[in-house]
């Protein structure tokens, strides 16, 4: 661990070359935004399941608490 | 490597979401319940007024989930899943930043990315459109409010990324410290203009038409036909407490993500030198 604390003058090497990792990074970001959407937005401002309110009502308190507009 | 980082980010996010839920369950849930009670009382008062005036009275439908379920299982699932989503996003940002933003230990970079997530995803949008407890927010404006909030979140994230890129570009000319300050100043200036341009929630056309011109949708005192107050406005202290706890939970969420992920990432990225004696270098895709 001693090598960590020593200040270095050279730049940290690139660990994840984006060209190779792009599928995983983009895929993860899409899944994460989908989760964000279902927890925070669906059956509120938008609804992909029509008038159903089960998701909205289930995560209702979390939605208020996480700062999303609700009702 | 990126898969390992993403997995660790999602796990750190789940743990952070769980801790944020415990915090929320203890501090925020009583505020939410009190706000719901306020709303019920206000609706009852409104019904009495409407009935006295001979207006049609609509009755609220029954709840799909009980309050107990919402406050425990629902809020818990919501916060943990939100944590997983943010942890995964955090890991993506961390993986892209590794080696591209100068000389930083993985732990320090983790804390900086967590700070960026807190500011970009939650706090900067909060400054313009703060979190509201139940009973604040008119049903007619949910579409506009949702769009404005999401626009604010999108802009704050994109501008934050832009500020990091700007800082990197300015660094050769102005040095690390001044380039960072200039990038922050540019971010603050642009986001400030954006906040000034976007409408306040109370100024939406539907609200001005029905309630008059107010900055927010926070309920004002309910008055009868003669102007006597029959039900109070929303408690200002309760609103403050709710928002404070909302910010507190997000500080906790992002802070815990950074604190858990940092050491995990460091173990993942650094053992190369220690392990080269015994095993082949860790250099997986």
Automatic annotation (TrEMBL), chain A:
<dbReference type="Pfam" id="PF09489">
    <property type="entry name" value="CbtB"/>
</dbReference>
<keyword id="KW-0812">Transmembrane</keyword>
<keyword id="KW-0472">Membrane</keyword>
<dbReference type="InterPro" id="IPR012667">
    <property type="entry name" value="CbtB_put"/>
</dbReference>
<protein>
    <submittedName>
        <fullName>Cobalt transporter subunit CbtB</fullName>
    </submittedName>
</protein>
<feature type="transmembrane region" description="Helical">
    <location>
        <begin position="21"/>
        <end position="39"/>
    </location>
</feature>
<keyword id="KW-1133">Transmembrane helix</keyword>
From TrEMBL, chain B:
<keyword id="KW-0812">Transmembrane</keyword>
<keyword id="KW-1133">Transmembrane helix</keyword>
<feature type="transmembrane region" description="Helical">
    <location>
        <begin position="75"/>
        <end position="97"/>
    </location>
</feature>
<feature type="transmembrane region" description="Helical">
    <location>
        <begin position="179"/>
        <end position="198"/>
    </location>
</feature>
<feature type="transmembrane region" description="Helical">
    <location>
        <begin position="109"/>
        <end position="127"/>
    </location>
</feature>
<keyword id="KW-0472">Membrane</keyword>
<dbReference type="Pfam" id="PF09490">
    <property type="entry name" value="CbtA"/>
</dbReference>
<feature type="transmembrane region" description="Helical">
    <location>
        <begin position="147"/>
        <end position="167"/>
    </location>
</feature>
<feature type="transmembrane region" description="Helical">
    <location>
        <begin position="244"/>
        <end position="265"/>
    </location>
</feature>
<protein>
    <submittedName>
        <fullName>Cobalt transporter subunit CbtA</fullName>
    </submittedName>
</protein>
<dbReference type="InterPro" id="IPR012666">
    <property type="entry name" value="CbtA_put"/>
</dbReference>
